[in-house]
Amino acid sequence: MTVKYTPDHEWIELADAQTATVGITLHAQDALGDVVFVDLPEVGRSYAKGEVAGVVESVKAAADVYMPLDGEVTEVNEDLRNDPSCANKDPMGAGWFFRMKIKDMAQFDALMDEPAYQQFVKDNA
Which residues, other chains included, contact 2 with Cβ-Cβ below 8 Å and sequence gap of 6+? Predict the structure, then answer.
C-alpha cells in the first residue's frame, strides 16, 4: 500500500485507484498526548483539500483534522468515535479517521512520502 503525508500531519493510504484511508500521524498523536474525543466528518459529504474535516481533542489540546485531498468521505471509523484512545494506540492502523473517494489523483501524487515527511518533521521541530 502507498502511504503519503501532509504538512498538517495526516497520513493517507491508497487502497485502490480512487479510494484511501486517512488518519493522524504518529508525530501528531505524540504531540497531542492522550486523545479523549474525536469529531469525524460527515459520510457522503465532499470536502476541498485543506478544509477542516474533523477535530481531535486530547488532554493537552484540540486540533483540526484537515482533508488531505479533494474528495468525498465514504466511511468513518465508528470504533474510534467509541474509543478515541485508538488514535494513540495504533494511529497508522486501527486509529484511522475516515475513508474517502479521491477526486484528483495528482493531489495525492504531490504529497510527501515517508522520507520527505520525516525530514519535514525534523526541520520543523
Answer: 13, 14
